[in-house]
Automatic annotation (TrEMBL):
Belongs to the thiolase-like superfamily. Thiolase family. This is Acetyl-CoA acetyltransferase, cytosolic. The keyword Amino-acid biosynthesis does not apply. NCBIfam families: AcCoA-C-Actrans. It comes from Scylla paramamosain. The keyword Acyltransferase applies. The active site is at 91 (acyl-thioester intermediate), 352 (proton acceptor), 382 (proton acceptor).
Amino acid sequence: MDTSSRVVILSAVRTPIGTFNGSLSSMAAHELGAVVVREALARARVPPAEVSEVLLGQVLTAAQGQNPARQAAMGAGVPYTVPATSINMLCGSGLRSVVMGYQAIKMEDASVVVCGGQESMSCAPHSVHMRNGTKMGSASLVDTMMVDGLTDAFHNCHMGITAENIVKKWNITRAQQDAFAAKSQQKVEESQKSGHFDQEIVPVLVPGKKGPTEVKVDEFPRVGTTVEALARLRPCFITDGSGSVTAGNSSGINDGAAAVVLARESEAKQRGLEAMAHIVAWAQAGVDPTIMGTGPIPAVKAALKKAEWSIDEVDLWELNEAFAAQSVAVVTELGLDPEKVNISGGAIALGHPIGASGARVLVTLLHSMARLNKKRGVAALCIGGGMGIALCVARP
C-alpha cells in the first residue's frame, strides 16, 4: 500500500503543567509556547525556516498581544516568513490545531506544520468596558478566565454545573467520581516515580531576579490522595446538599503548553526522519451545551467509523479528564476498558491548561504508545459550549 501521502507525527513535547499562580505563572502563554515549538522542531530535526506554518490553540487571549501563536513561533526562532495562526475551540483548541495541520498537509498546502496549544490561566486579566464611560455607579471588573474559559455562553453557568447535569442524567454517584479521581492521582504519582513523563516533558527556565529557575516536573498532582480524603471535600458548584462535583474530582486551573510536528510521510522519508505515528482519522461532534462533557461520545464513535476500527482494536485511550463525572459517563457509554484509559493518569491530577490540553493528551498518548509498543491510540476531549473532538493515531 502506498503510504507516501499519510500525515505523520515527527515529535511530541510538552512543558510541565504549572498550578494556578504557581511556578509558571510569571510566563505568558506565548513564552511557554515558544519553549515547546523550539523543542519539537529540534527533536524532529527540522530547521525552523523549513516550517510551512505554525498553528497553536489558545483560549484566553485578552490583552495578550496580537496573535499569540505568531509570538510563540517567533520566540522559538521561526522566521518572519513562516505564518502562524491562533485557534480557539476552547478545550479542543490544541487538538483542533493538529487536525488543521493534518488537513493543510493532506491538501498539499503545507509540507511541515507545527501544531499544539498554549495557555496561561494565571495570566488571564480582569477587564472592564469603559469606552463610553460610567455616568453613575460602579464599574465592575470581569474575570476573563471565568467568562471566556469556564462559563457556558448559552446558559451562563460554570462548567462544573454541566458536570452536575451529567451526574443526574447518568446516575453517577459521588463514590464513582471520587474513585475515578483518586485513581487518576495514583496513576500520575506512579508515573512520576517511574519517569514515564520524562521523555515528553521539556524543562522550562523561568526568569527570576536571582537567575532562572528550572521547572521540569508537573506541580499540580496531589501525592498520597485517597478516596477517603476526597470524600471529605464539599461540593463546590451545587451547595444545597444535592451536589457531588468537588475541587478534588475536577480538573485544575493551570498553565502549560504542548506541541507536535507534522509532515507528509514522503517528506519525512526524504529527510531521513522516523515518525512516532501517523494520523488515521479524526472527528468532531456537537452535543447539548448543558452536558458538554459527553462530547467525546459521538466524536469518538465518528472517528472510529472513519478509521474503520472497533472499540476493542484500540490499545490506548487518552481522554481529557475535565471532570470525573463526565469521564465516568464517557468510559461507561462507550464501553471502554478502564485499564486502557489514561494509563498514566489525566487532567484531574495533571491539570487542564485549557488551550493546551488537546495537544497535551496527544503528546502523552504518543509517548505511552511508544513506551509500551502499542499500535493504535485515540485522543479525545469534551469542549465547552457542547462539543467533542477525537483523533486516531497508529504506529507501525
